[in-house]
Design goal:
- The complex is a heterotrimer of chains A (651), B (214) and C (101).
- A two-stranded antiparallel ribbon of chain A has the order 1-2.
- In chain A, 75% of the residues lie in helices and 2% in strands.
- In chain A, a hairpin with a 2-residue loop joins strand 1 and strand 2.
- Chain B is built from 7 helices and 2 strands; from the N terminus they run H-H-H-H-H-H-E-E-H.
- In chain B, helix 1 packs antiparallel against helix 2.
- Classes of the chains: A mainly alpha (651), B mainly alpha (214), C mainly alpha (101).
- At the B-C interface, helix 1, helix 2, helix 3, helix 4 and helix 5 of B face helix 1, helix 2 and helix 3 of C.
Chain lengths: 651, 214, 101
């Protein structure tokens, strides 16, 4: 069996399924599409398992010395299985969930595209040379455009789809650049020959791949496109954010890490981008009032952590975190979809659905605990590994990863409380239920929750050693301070949010304009519009004008233009130098003033915050002093378990 | 006994011990609960005999028989339903308790299955009692002395805690400090807090007396 | 009868005892739960002695110490029950909450 069949099968079945579903009788359409799509994807999953076990490879010469290659290696195989598995569950869910507010033809298109999309992603995952990677990359990008713009009758959707497509497409140019550099240097594009690239070509290639990955994985400064992508249906988000599309960027870095690492600047730059994204994403997630955008911010943050691991030279750890994240993030989006449908709004302020959706709330709790990285779930283990890898690069990197973990615990708690917390008397009451989850949707969430729990086996030393050996990596040596520090930060983050909520002070929506701007990725979209989009448009207009004049007026006009330009330039020169000097001086003064103000306020706020936290924590600890022996026995029993677990697994 | 017979006996005793242990908390009669606990202990004692710890097993039989009879007396004294004539349920936090109990059993069971315990069979299967005797009266003599002193302290402590009258008066009114000068009644140290406590307890005592009359 | 089966049986006894301790209201019943849990501990200690010690008699001494714990627990426990009952007319944990905040 040729390995090409795996992606090609899905890319072919997708359109066929779309056509069949389109023709099917309206009553049976959901069933046909759900069963058909899930079966096609499950077949691909089984095929991936078989290909992984056989570590099969395939080639396809396209002439001019270029050969397309795919291989199910130690990293590619398991990730391919993951992609197929998550896509199966999500498709199952999509056929039911989107089927309720979607006319029949649209559903057929959606499911067909989802299946084809998974096929394109498989091509990215299995690619063994830069050309195949680029082909898959562009297919993923184009199909994501179609998926995000699925509800094209909405006013926003086409624009949002274009935003997402342009942002990732711009990054995709980096991949083309990288392929070009590699081909110029070695005359080949296979991953195995990339090690021979050096000199300028190496730097161009590394920069290109990094640019492509940063844009695809929605890291800073490309993060805002992920918010635009929220215009798509929820099931699309679930697939996009977990194991496909966004994963493609981090995955490319993981696969190419040995080559990228030969450029000395790659590690520090990747760590810096990853940390900035993880921390900024955490803050954004804490302020967002839109259920899906909160999760989108957390996606960026979690991919930031993976990129930190890659930058720190531990791609195996990044693979594990990718897998754990894919499982719980897919489930979180499915839950968010159920909640959004239940109340008919994206607004977190009107949810608090535990009373009306008890099972969804319980299943979601598993995923939120995984997002918060609470042991013994597997996601906690992978986050600790990222932390250990970061500490290997530098202690402060590890500490910042731990801080990012605390932030993720905080926004995970926030999501759980606002979306699935119990109703509170002092809050806007939940909207009347539009519709509860169907059984298929619950099953899909249950499967993913069970997978999250199963990943907890990674804590067993024998298991994670075997898994890491299977990925061809060695687990980073963990320092003894890491686990306590990161668990303390996780507990603090979750506690602060919980405590705010208990006192009725947990915001649903950003309060002021400045907070609103932060919640919208620190006003990054506006900045990009002002600094990149508008100047580009102006430049294009100017160029067009120049072009017109040259064509129209010919050489004379060109000469005149040159003359005028030179006159302007000489005149401007004197003025400019003067202005620049004065401007620099003024900027320095303004910056100094601002930093003094920010510094003072920052220190003050930190001190106040710590005092507030200690006070609140003291109050809450007092609440546990019931004086009732049987309740204290429970505390003792749980404490014993923790001590024993630390003794057994702490080592 | 052959291996198969030992296995059958072990499983019988183990299942019986667990079943009686479960019945302790599910029966209405308190006296019956006590004897269920006794049965659980006797089964464990029998398993100890199977484990060739005959001394311990027999010690269990005697010790637990006496202790459970004492316990039955307390059951009759303190519980309102010693004979189980009425159905009763005196539990709190039942679900948390079940969760923690199952968690403890499963957790320890997993450790038992997974843990790598180095096997080292008995060298002298017939002489375990003699070896234990030599140990108790030899190398572990100090330990046994401590055990003895502890038991004496326990006896004294139990009597002090449960007796109705203390050295300086009724036990539940607290102790009164002795006179500093035996001839002067005013030389008693004045402990404000002790007086306050005494008043509080007197109130309780009065309440109790009232309940007794009713 | 192997070390694993003996330890499993003791784990079940300890779990039952824990459940009893946590769920019963009456002091006397709570003490019975403790006794059942210590019962499991003694069984585990005897099993470990039998299968992994090679006949070292100090393993049995550990069981005797566990028995001591049980005897002290029963004696002092009942004395406390009597003292509390005399002072408060209470025989359940809900009745004494002096240590609450």
């Amino acid at each position: 069996m040729s390995l090409w069949l795996l992606p090609v099968w899905l890319l072919l079945v997708g359109p066929v399924l779309g056509m069949v579903g389109h023709r099917a009788a309206p009553g049976r359409r959901r069933l046909v599409l759900g069963a058909g799509g899930a079966t096609a994807l499950a077949v691909a999953g089984v095929g991936s398992v078989a290909a992984t076990l056989a570590t099969s490879t395939a080639t396809y010469p396209v002439g001019a010395g270029l050969v397309l290659r795919v291989a199910a290696g130690p990293v590619a195989g398991p990730v391919a299985v993951l992609v197929a598995a998550i896509a199966t569950v999500v498709t199952m869910y999509a056929a039911r969930h989107e089927g309720q507010h979607e006319d029949g033809a649209g559903l057929a298109r959606l499911v067909g595209l989802l299946v084809a999309f998974a096929g394109a992603m498989l091509l990215v995952v299995l690619a063994d040379d830069l050309l195949t990677l680029t082909v898959g990359w562009e297919l993923v990008g184009a199909l994501s455009w179609a998926l995000i713009g699925h509800e094209w009758r909405d006013a926003d959707a086409p624009g949002a789809a274009a935003h997402a497509y342009n942002a990732t497409r711009f990054g995709g140019l980096g991949l083309v650049l990288a392929a070009g550099a590699a081909f110029a240097a070695t005359g080949s594009l296979g991953y195995d020959t990339l090690g021979g690239v050096d000199g300028v070509a190496l730097h161009v290639m590394v920069a290109g791949v990094l640019l492509a990955a940063v844009s695809k994985s929605a890291l800073v400064p490309f993060s805002p496109w992920l918010f635009s992508a929220m215009a798509g249906p929820t099931s699309v988000s679930a697939l996009l954010h977990s194991s496909t599309m966004v994963a493609a960027g981090a995955y490319a870095l993981i696969r190419l890490q040995p080559v990228l690492d030969t450029a000395s600047w790659f590690g520090p730059v990747a760590i810096a981008i990853g940390l900035v994204t993880a921390l900024a994403g955490g803050v954004v997630g804490l302020l967002q009032g839109h259920a899906k955008k909160l999760l989108a911010a957390s996606t960026s943050a979690q991919y930031g952590l993976m990129v930190v691991a890659v930058g720190a030279g531990a791609p195996g750890v990044a693979v594990l975190h990718l897998v754990a994240h894919a499982v719980f993030k897919a489930q979180l989006f499915l839950s968010a979809g159920v909640a959004i449908t239940a109340v008919g709004s994206h607004d977190l302020a009107r949810m608090r659905l535990r009373g009306v959706l008890p099972w969804t709330a319980r299943l979601t709790l598993v995923a939120t605990l995984a997002l918060a990285a609470v042991p013994p779930l597997g996601a906690a283990f992978t986050k600790e590994q990222v932390l250990a890898a970061g500490t290997h690069a530098a202690t402060w990197v590890g500490l910042l990863v731990a801080v990012a973990g605390g932030l993720s615990a905080a926004y995970a708690t926030r999501f759980q409380l606002l979306a699935f917390g119990g109703a509170r008397p002092d809050r806007p009451s939940p909207r009347p239920l539009v519709r509860g989850p169907a059984r298929v949707e619950l099953v899909a969430m249950g499967v993913l929750a069970a997978a999250s729990i199963t990943l907890g086996l990674l804590w067993v030393p024998a298991v994670h050693e075997a898994v890491m050996a299977g990925l061809g990596a060695t687990p980073p040596e963990a320092r003894s301070w890491e686990l306590p520090v990161s668990l303390a930060l996780v507990a603090t983050g979750a506690y602060v949010v919980w405590s705010l909520d208990r006192r009725g002070r947990l915001g649903h929506v950003p309060a002021g304009a400045s907070q609103q701007a932060v919640a919208d990725w620190f006003a990054l979209p506006r900045l990009v519009r002002g600094v990149v989009v508008a100047p580009t448009l102006h430049l294009a207009t100017a160029l067009a004008t120049v072009d017109d004049r040259i064509v129209d007026a010919g050489v004379d006009a060109a000469a005149g233009l040159g003359e005028r330009l030179s006159r302007v330039a000489s005149g401007a020169g004197e003025v400019t130098v003067d202005a620049v000097v004065r401007g620099v001086a003024r900027t320095g003064t303004v910056l100094a003033d601002a930093s003094v103000r920010v510094g003072e306020r920052g220190v003050e706020r930190t001190v106040d915050g710590v005092a507030w936290l200690a006070g609140r924590a003291g109050d809450d600890v007092r609440r546990t002093q019931t004086g009732l022996v049987h309740q204290q026995y429970i505390v003792i029993a749980v404490g014993l378990v923790v001590v024993l677990a630390a003794a057994i697994f702490g080592r | 006994m052959t291996g198969l017979a030992v296995d059958i006996a072990f499983w019988t005793f183990a299942v019986a011990a667990a079943w009686f242990g479960w019945r302790v908390f599910r029966t209405d009669s308190m006296v019956r609960a006590t004897f269920c606990l006794l049965a659980s202990f006797l089964n464990v004692g029998a398993i100890m005999v199977l484990l060739l710890a005959e001394y311990l097993g027999v010690a269990m039989f005697f010790m637990m028989s006496v202790e459970m009879v004492v316990m039955a007396i307390f059951m009759v004294a303190f519980m309102m339903n010693p004979a189980g004539l009425n159905p009763m349920e005196m539990v709190h936090q039942p679900r948390a308790a079940i969760a923690v109990g199952i968690g403890a059993a499963v957790g320890l069971g997993v450790v038992a299955v997974v843990a790598d315990l180095p096997p080292a069979a008995l060298l002298d299967e017939a002489g375990t009692i003699r070896a234990l005797g030599n140990e108790l009266m030899g190398a572990s003599m100090l330990l046994m002395e401590v055990v003895g002193v502890t038991l004496v302290a326990t006896m004294v402590g139990a009597v002090v805690l449960s007796s109705a009258s203390g050295r300086y008066g009724s036990a539940d009114t607290g102790s009164v400090p002795p006179l500093l000068d035996p001839d002067d009644p005013d030389s008693r140290p004045d402990l404000v807090s002790a007086d306050g406590e005494g008043d509080a307890h007197a109130g309780h005592g009065g309440h109790g007396g009232h309940g007794g009359h009713g | 009868m192997t070390i694993v089966t003996v330890l499993l049986a003791s784990a079940v006894l300890l779990g039952l005892g824990t459940w009893g301790v946590l769920s019963q209201q009456s002091f006397v019943m709570i003490m019975m739960g403790f006794e059942l849990a210590i019962n499991g501990v003694m069984l585990a200690a005897a099993g470990v002695w039998r299968f992994t010690s090679g006949g070292e008699p100090r393993g049995q001494v550990l069981v005797i110490v566990a028995m001591l714990v049980m005897a002290v627990e029963a004696a002092i426990g009942f004395a406390l029950v009597v003292a509390v009952y005399r002072a408060r007319q209470q025989d359940t944990t809900e009745g004494i909450a002096e240590l609450s905040r």
